[in-house]
Amino acid sequence: SIHRLHNGLLALFLLQKKTRTDKQLPRESPLEQQQHSQGSLGTGGVMYGNGTIVSGPLESLIDLLMPGNVEEFDQDYVFSFLLSARFFIRSYELLGKLLESIPEPEPLERIVPLLGVWTRMFPYDFRDERMMNHVKHIVARCADTKLANVVPQLLCALLARLTELENHEEELRSYQSTVDNKTESISWPTATQLAQLLCRIERKLAKHVGPEEFVQCSPNLLKDPNREDFTPKPTSAGPSGAGSGSGAGQATSLDGKKTCNLESYLEWSARLRLLVANEILKCRNIQDRNKQFELWSGAAQYCLLVGNYNSATAILESFDLPPVARLQV
Question: Which part of the chain is the Ras-GEF domain (predicted)?
């Protein structure tokens, strides 16, 4: 079920991406386009398949992030590269390389569209002070150009997104501080109202999960949903900028985790399973137990109808827990 949750959330991010344009990077002749559609090696060692970039050297792929013509800017490629490049280069190092590739007198018209997509798709990268130092440099270089009004708009949107994340994290911490308190008996609503409440919780938690969290989290996180520690471990950078690894021989992101939204989402699923099981096990007679089964079964059915598969799966899995499965209903 955890793997289904992983795939479902990843599909959510892919669905939110814009429709792919017909423009290819870089601009090619008809002969080159025909060769690339059949699968071939392009400029700089970039491999094409069916007209799209499949693989290539890191430096060549970095060059394609900022095409010479702004109209050729491909947001789908930018999303894919910024997500997967974390295995090979840190985000602040990548932005630094892009800035260094543009001489000081030259305007930053090619990098500002990239910055706009970056801040929108991966805003949590900019919680790193080293990233913000590069952004300050971009702002300074754009101060006396026609981009002077564009960059502040990007930064305002980024600030709003990061502020929203901080408020969300503070809210989660306040919930965590009361999690050990004894809860009084709950007066449950109808199955439909309960399912609607679960859907609101799911949307609130899933909204803040960044796509980069799937490559930054520990490989063992998705395998063990009941692990106690869902707090990301702090990473330290030495003089060379090398972060602490998560294990030898593991393909992990070079960037340290800056959020724990994915962990919170998985923890919510585990808590929901325990909640359903506890409410059923608290019933002292078969009649009350049947009512609880009907309540949660109805909520699971409604969740399935509206596409809230995570809550529905968590409820159904709680029915299969040994203490619940052995009960008479």
Answer: 190-329
Look at 48 and 119; give whichever has higher pLDDT: 119
Domain boundaries 43-168, CATH class: mainly alpha
**In this structure, which long-range contacts are made by residues 11-15, counting pairs with CB atoms below 8 Å and at least 24 apart in sequence?**
12/206, 13/211
Backbone dihedral region for residue 145 (phi beyond 0: left; psi -120 to 50: alpha; all else: beta): beta
Amino acid sitting at position 189? P
What are the extents of the domains in the chain?
43-168, 188-220+256-328
188-220+256-328 is a CATH 1.10.10.410 domain:
no
How does pLDDT run across 55-102, given as a tens digit for each residue?
Answer: 888 888 888 888 766 666 788 888 988 998 888 889 999 999 999 988
Q: What is the β-pairing status of strands 40-41 and 52-55?
A: unpaired
